[in-house]
Amino acid sequence: MSGLELVRDVAGLRARVAVARAAGQRVALVPTMGALHAGHLSLVELARRHAGFVVASVFVNPLQFGANEDFGRYPRDEAGDRAQLARAGCDLLFAPEVTTVYPPGFATRVEVAGLSEPFEGAVRPGHFGGVATVVTKLLVMAAPDVAVFGEKDWQQLAVIRRLVADLDLPVEIVAGPVCRDADGLALSSRNAYLTADERARAAALPAALRAAATALAGGAPVEPTLGAARAALLEAGFASVDYITLVDPDTLAPLATLDGPARLLAAARLGTTRLLDTLAVAPGTPPA
Q1: Which residues contact 155 (CB under 8 A, 6 or more apart)?
Q2: Which fold would CATH assign to domain 5-176?
Q3: Which fold has domain 189-280?
Q4: Is the pTM here over 0.85, yes or no?
Q5: Using one digit for the tens of pLDDT, what is the confidence trace for 35-68?
Q6: Annotated active-site positions, please?
Q7: Close Cβ partners of 164 (under 8 Å, ≥ 6 residues apart)
């Protein structure tokens, strides 16, 4: 663990950040829920390019889980996370207890209207209120110059950008690209839930998005193309498709035609696991 410090309290976090600032270093924060994989580590590497002192937080946030969701079984491996962060060159791990983030009597919640309501917000009521609340708290606790989030959770990224702008928080939000396995599946801590057979079938999700993006970039009509992507997932063995949609990248408004840069968003269920993915789309530009 050489080089990686660990703090669990807000006072310790702020004190260490103050030391870094006194040394003239910019500070970056990479918020995570742990169970780290190469996608998270790519965000640490991106943070390092923007700041001299990198803080990663590991906190499984109960406020963003619904009553029947996987908070209790969400993968946790602090020792493994610490080892990976040390190898990635992270400077400080902030790993608070739930009572540190939400002490007795905690009664405040941050809500971002509009962007939080469709897609994930419709499927997981209250989820983005939990996300917005914990991200606001982490940004206030650490007061970073830069905070780094992954593009895979595109709606979450849009919500965070909106709350930072609305609350005039003095932090730059930097987005890291989706990291994928060799077969295209976006890396996610929840991929650990997949059986071997489900993991093989899961590659149908990025394949369907790529096929849809290629067709749309070539001028294919939106709704039939999205319908074909949904059908492909069901044929591949997905239990259900929560949504596959084409949206404006900033407002998340659904698009009936592709007239400029856009984003494909998808969420589908495979066995007991819910998988998310996203892909940039633009007219005349096949996906990279």
Answers
A1: 115, 119, 120, 121, 128, 252, 265
A2: Rossmann fold (3.40.50)
A3: Pantoate--beta-alanine Ligase; Chain: A,domain 2 (3.30.1300)
A4: yes
A5: 999 999 999 999 999 999 999 999 999 999 999 8
A6: 40
A7: 139, 171, 173
